[in-house]
Amino acid sequence: MILPIVAFGTPVLKKKAKNIKNDHEGLKELIGNMWETMYNAKGVGLAAPQIGKRIRIFLIDTIQLEEEESELKEGVKQVFINAEILEEEGESWLYEEGCLSIPHIRGDVERLPNITIKYFDEDFVEHTKKFEGINARVIQHEYDHIEGILFTTKLKPLKRRLIKRKLEAIKKGSVKVDYRMRFPE
Predict the structure, then answer these.
(1) What's the rounded Cα separation, in Å, for the pair 126 and 172?
(2) Residue 59 sits in a domain of what CATH number?
């Protein structure tokens, strides 16, 4: 089922999400709905707070970027539950990011290119893995969501000032998208 994506200004997007247990009610169905919602909105990642759930789940599919991104050696399609970034390293690099909860706004975000992350997959099997480049960036972006951080807070001050009106318009629901959205009340 395609779920509405919550828009900028919705309180759940600014709150740190909570860990879940392996017997979390409706987990498989929730994950299936998140995949369907993400693909419907043409996203490469989606975090539970973006569908109004304050729990530590996100998923990514960068396989769909393999043709567009020359430096992407191998895409990743993965569910991350109760994730914890253990290490970030390398020389920081700028890359333009966007967000399904903040439609039509993009901006350069500086991130480190290599991460080590501990997480559970959809079967609640624990993993500790290293990711790099675009894969690491998409994971960091979605991880920020479960930490209550939006990419707009990482933009340069001038860019933040330039998008202020657009952000206010999103909060008010004055934005057109071709996917389901829920705006702050």
Answers:
(1) 40
(2) 3.90.45.10
Low-confidence ranges of the chain (pLDDT < 70): 70-72
d(CA 178, CA 67): 24
- Counting the structural domains of the chain, the total is 1
* Residue 101 and residue 6 in contact, taking contact as beta carbons nearer than 8 Å: yes
Whole-number Å distance between alpha carbons of 95 and 135: 12
pLDDT tens-digit readout, 129-160 = 999 999 999 999 999 999 999 999 999 999 99
Rounded distance between C-alpha atoms, residue 19 and residue 21, angstroms? 7
Q: Which two tokens stand for residue 23?
A: 């017997």
Nearest residue to 51 via CA among 76, 24, 67, 30: 30
* Tokens read off for 103: 């439609």
Could you say which of 71, 122, 142, 147 is catalytic? 142
Domain hosting 22: range is 5-182
Q: Decide: residue 184, CB within 10 A, 0-12 exposed, 13-18 middle, 19+ buried.
A: middle
Q: Residue 142 catalytic?
A: yes
